[in-house]
Amino acid sequence: MTDVVLRVAGISKRFGGLQALSEVGLTIARGQVYGLIGPNGAGKTTFFNVITGLYTPDTGSFELAGKPYTPSAVHEVARAGIARTFQNIRLFADMTALENVMVGRHVRTHSGLLGAIFRSKTFKAEEAAIASRAQELLDYVGIGRFAEYKARTLSYGDQRRLEIARALATDPQLIALDEPAAGMNSTEKVVLRELIDRIRKDGRTILLIEHDVKLVMGLCDRVTVLDYGKQIAEGSPYDVQRNEKVIEAYLGHSHKPTGEKAGAAAVGEKQ
């Protein structure tokens, strides 16, 4: 099995007169937490949406686990092995937490439409297995006791964790998290960080878009920085925080810090 989960190269995307992405690429190794950061409007979400099949790129190549990969549709992306969460929570509000996770798990079912209609023995056994796995995942993310609660009744932080459980239900090779800490208080962020760290330690590979630079730098193995749709830095969190182009992108020329300690503090202050 290849040590590279996702490799993309030369990704460009234009919307009318706006060049949203220009020749962007990255390589994510198995078991990494890989961060994608940049100022507002840098192209992070566009890049994320290209990878996960919401947008079709103008140019670029994709490999998933060493094989050519075409992110042509969201459901095909999920089947290929990439699961995602959204910046704005997208749960089935009037379904229970358990049912939400079961929906995610159905991408790996085999019974088909006829089995569902006629409630075959195979279908019933598979549904029981799906419900069991969904409960395991709710326990895993720390909200197992809320299995029968409707999604809309959960706290904001618990809804975020429910989205992650639903993504994990697809058995992804890569889980892509779009600003999972957005709107969270400091206590919820600590819980989220612990969860992401646990997912990584259990062998999952994670792509993380996040405005909270301190969270990214504390979790990620590698980081790519975008600015105006261009890749201006890539490397370890230590190196990225001290990159002059990154500091300039976040603080601008007039606030450019100097000295040996100009890096993490400078980039972190903007956030």
UniProtKB/TrEMBL annotation:
Name the GO terms of the biological process aspect. D-alanine transmembrane transport; L-alanine transport; L-isoleucine import across plasma membrane; L-valine import across plasma membrane
Pfam families (UniProt xref):
ABC_tran, BCA_ABC_TP_C
Q: Which SMART domains match?
A: AAA
Q: Give the UniProt keywords, A-Z.
A: ATP-binding, Cell membrane, Membrane, Nucleotide-binding, Transport
GO MF: ATP binding; ATP hydrolysis activity; L-isoleucine transmembrane transporter activity; L-phenylalanine transmembrane transporter activity; L-valine transmembrane transporter activity
State whether keyword Lyase applies: no
Instruction: Extract the InterPro entries matched here.
Output: AAA+_ATPase, ABC_AA/LPS_Transport, ABC_transporter-like_ATP-bd, ABC_transporter-like_CS, BCA_ABC_TP_C, P-loop_NTPase
One GO cellular component this record assigns the protein to is:
plasma membrane
Task: Tell me which residues make up the ABC transporter domain.
Answer: 6-253
What Gene3D superfamilies is this protein classified in?
P-loop containing nucleotide triphosphate hydrolases
**What CDD domains is this protein classified in?**
ABC_Mj1267_LivG_branched
Keyword 4Fe-4S assigned: no
* PANTHER family found in the cross-reference section: AMINO ACID ABC TRANSPORTER ATP-BINDING PROTEIN, CONSERVED COMPONENT OF ABC TRANSPORTER FOR NATURAL AMINO ACIDS-RELATED
Which named protein is this? Answer: ABC transporter ATP-binding protein
Q: Please tell me the species this chain comes from.
A: Ramlibacter monticola
